[in-house]
Amino acid sequence: MREKAAEIADIDAAQMVMNVCEREVRMAVEMVYLDKPYEQLEWGDIKMRVHKASLMIPASERNVYRYLRRARMVFAEERGLRCKSWQ
Would you say the C-alpha torsion 59, 64, 65, 67 has a positive or negative sign? Predict the structure, then answer.
């Protein structure tokens, strides 16, 4: 029961990220984290997806990583996780 509550809270926090973040952040999250979510990640998949996102958004790869960091920060804040050291 407790596990389900945590899972629901994660889903709510992820939805909050998609609702409050800027368009570029949402696009980066969708392209990097939500592409083929049921497939096992292989070595280099995230880097390859970041590269692809940088071409599609368009933004530098560095900015795509910044967008993903922003999404993780919003998620952590929404979940009440400690995130001061990430800043």
Answer: positive
Extents of the domains making up the chain: 2-86
What is the three-class DSSP state of 21?
coil
| pLDDT confidence of residue 7 | 82
Task: Give 12: exposed, middle or buried? Use CB within 10 Å, 0-12, 13-18, 19+.
Answer: exposed
**Average pLDDT in the 59-73 region?**
94
Give, as one character, the DSSP assignment of residue 41. P
> DSSP code of 84?
G
Integer-rounded Cα Rg, in Å, for the chain is: 14
Predicted local distance difference test score (pLDDT) of residue 5: 82
Rounded to an integer, what distance in angstroms lies between the CA atom of residue 52 and that of residue 75? 23
Which of 84, 62, 85, 75 lies closest to 26, judged by CA?
75
3-state secondary structure 13-46: HHHHHHHHCCHHHHHHHHHHHCCCCCCCCCCCHH
